[in-house]
Amino acid sequence: MQRLALLFRNAHAIAKAGRPFSDMEWMCALDEKKGLDVGASYRTDKKCCEFIHCIAEEQRLGLQAQIQSNNFFSVMMDGITDSSVSDAEIIYIRQGVKGVVAVNFLAYVNISRGTADHICTALVQALESNLQMTKETIFSKLVGFGSDGASVMTGCKSGVSTRLKREQPLLFSMHCMAHRLELGFKAVVGENSFMTTFSELLFSIYNFYHSSALNRENLKSSCAAAGVKFLAPSRVGGTRWLPHTMLALKKLWSMYPALMQHFEQLKADMKCLVDGLTAQLEKQLGENGTDDVTSAMHFLSLHSWPHQANEEFGNQDVALLLRHFGPILEKCGVDVSVDLTEWNLLKDIVTAQDNCPNVLQLVDLLLSLPASSADCERGFSLTKVIKSDWRSRLRDTMVTDLMTVQLHSPEIGDFDPASSILTWKGTCKRRLSLNISDSNSDDEMESE
């Protein structure tokens, strides 16, 4: 057991640090030089993959237990073209547990075609295999679906959300708020010639200093002479998120105080931009018939609560949400008829969870709904690190295991391999070696 513990710790460190599986051999050789007994077996890259799979399986067992004990969960997913030029979907699970939101990575799945039919089939199969639940049980707990708003995801005729609603009619589909903000901003920029010109200016400044070491050094010298901190100009393009543009603007302003006077002259144009952005936000955030239900959720934020007692606060919102989600709640044994009474009690005793079990189930359901798919975007960044050009042949199951270990397993110093070793012993089949010395070594390790 002690030898296996060392091997499992090495495999966990390899997965956590994003190292190649072949590192297992030299890490074991290094352990031997340190005086540690790691044995002569299970030191190959293939065994490293087995160990990582068992470590990831332990993390999935914990997620399975959470989903089975909870009444609601939502799915977030988004598509990517990886380094092997293959279409893939990344899937996350979001759930509210006693007022606390938990977001967990579920799977990375390759698909043969990026159609709604293939994506929906891959999603259901991933949920069934990773959660170890039947299709009926999954859809009885599924309350929300979050995506980037692409037509293949949210199409009203045959999109993924529409197909899921055929199994769960009360499913609530959410178009990522960050993507909506980006769409609204793009619509305004497209109509505003000043902003288009200014974006081109920011990109030109970035390209001028990014492509020339001499120009960058001259900029550093200029900043030192002006007593201004040097900040490398940022790219405005890329993934098109608004923070990229804001960062580029902040750096430009901090390094060029003399331009502030010029910006004063541009306030009129900026005001037109802000007015247009506000109109586009109202248009984007009111799409897909989600305005009433989304607006009714505002009571979840304590910042919206009145400073003094108000018997009417939130009553209409809770009533609207109960009408919408009532059938789902009743299937879970929630007494919907007393939720309004408990809501009034909750306003007086916010922290008294034992006194308001039914209305808090509604809160958990609402917290399970995804407001954005930002977690999927962060998953894409990790995917590009794991499945790089040098590791483009990694299977989707292996990518799923590596992402699970990196995102949800303990840190290297806190990892306890005991439960993963038991999983490995119970599930992995090992053939007997014809080499007598190797066979004896294997028997010794399995008997420890």
Describe the overall structure:
Helix content is 59%, strand content 9%. The chain is an alpha/beta fold and 448 residues long. It has a five-stranded mixed β-sheet, with helices on both faces. Mean pLDDT is 81; it is low at 258-263 and 432-448.
Which terms would index this structure?
448 residues; alpha/beta; 5-stranded mixed beta sheet; 5 strands; 59% helix; globular; disordered C terminus
Question: What value does the average pLDDT take?
Answer: 81
Q: What is the CA-CA span between the terminal residues? A: 5 Å
| Structural class assignment | alpha/beta
> Any low-confidence stretches, pLDDT <50, length ≥5?
258-263, 432-448
What gross morphology would you assign?
globular
Helical content stands at 55-70%
* Count of distinct strands: 5
Computed over alpha carbons, the radius of gyration is 27 Å
Order of helices and strands: HHHEEEHHEHHEHHHHHHHHHHHHHH
Strands side by side in the biggest sheet: 3-2-1-4-5
Layout of strands and helices, then pairs:
Layout: H1 2-17, H2 23-33, H3 45-69, E1 73-81, E2 87-97, E3 100-110, H4 116-131, H5 135-141, E4 142-147, H6 151-154, H7 160-167, E5 172-175, H8 177-191, H9 193-210, H10 213-226, H11 242-255, H12 260-265, H13 267-285, H14 291-295, H15 315-331, H16 339-348, H17 357-367, H18 374-386, H19 396-408, H20 418-427, H21 436-447
Parallel strand pairs: 1-4, 4-5
Antiparallel strand pairs: 1-2, 2-3
